[in-house]
């Protein structure tokens, strides 16, 4: 199956003895000109790249104050060293967050500090060389930008920001990552990460309408490009295609149907994901976000609801205002944007949804907090809403719910191992090894409490777990969408109670 060993799951999560160089050289494919140039980057490594990289770093230090503060303030206390899932899963000391930062900090010191310019060896400063560039390319693509380390750093140093900055510098000299940049190119040319054109998207949505009708006897619509709809749904394109994502999409459609609201998907902004954030590019991230604004204006919607996607919720919740605001053309009575879990929970609280929880009785469910939702956003109007609201929704539709080890959930959650632009087959080894701490916690509740399913609200987590669960001898279909659980328990008005569709119920 693979040319690497899957880490062994032990009785408890231990800190490994270091193995220098264990992951040296592991790197994703480099982007070619057709995927560099549309993003505004050189097609390939420019001749004077050393000079250009330092120039770019200088520009970013002036522009992003936090970047310089992070580079200057580390006191080497070591609190972050054992907090990264990639270190725990690989034993490579360069996957310790502080060591990952130092790959860039050493170059910063050489060119931008007095001591580094005149006494480089004394302060661990390094010249920008090919060896350094290769090391950056490798280890800054072994960071999923999950921000777990920053929770434990007494100074709040965010390694994710340093990793994003390193990728932006590399893109600017022509050394971009194929996976991320190819995807962003597809969003610009077609509208979504999958490259799914409008006719294929329309067919898919019609097929799903038929599937829901066959299952329930109720005509639930999944509308596309309907001008004048109240709500625009922005969701990851994996929801149109992949398992278990698509079951979640059917869940959103059923909830909208029962709420009696008019809604639509846009073929122009048919993607919630924003890989511009992963490559640290303000400009590309903004270009993707602007598509949502243009679609909302074009369709004349009053609200925007966001589907289950982790990093995309961070971009929407934290950055849409600066990228694409003001959103003053939307209805001020609703949050902009609103998460689908907030939307559903609100209806549940108002008693507007009816459930048969026993439909989920064959499951014992746990919840995986996705990094970007947990550590970079909120939901609702109370602190911690991003932890409580998805759990409240699950508990409203399932009788059997258990938590994983408290050290591995909420703001201490472990990354799935595939975030931050790492969800590509050329990085399978780091994905499998980095998933180990989450797999360990999951395996514990499977053994001790009979957990059968883990729910998530992130498209990347769902795809990553589907792929890595079998490496840890757990079935790939253990991972489910939160709105898949909602969908299975929701009783639609007029729904038939048998296997056969009993007649048409127009919405
Ligand atoms: S942001 Fe996450 S992946 Fe990156 S170094 Fe920190 S803990 Fe590791
Ligand atoms: S926890 Fe913060 S200050 Fe301490 S070594 Fe890590 S990055 Fe530096």
Sum up the structure in keywords.
507 residues; 7 strands; three-stranded parallel beta sheet; mainly alpha; binds iron/sulfur cluster; four-stranded parallel beta sheet; 21 helices; 2 domains; disordered C terminus
How does this model look, in words?
46% of the residues lie in helices and 5% in strands. By secondary structure, the protein is mostly helical. The strands form 2 sheets. Strands 2-1-3-4 form a 4-stranded parallel β-sheet. The protein has a 3-stranded parallel β-sheet with strand order 5-6-7, sandwiched between helices. Helix 5 (97-112) crosses helix 9, helix 15 crosses helix 17 and helix 17 packs parallel to helix 21 (482-489). The model is unreliable at 499-507 (pLDDT under 50). The structure holds iron/sulfur cluster (SF4) (2 copies).
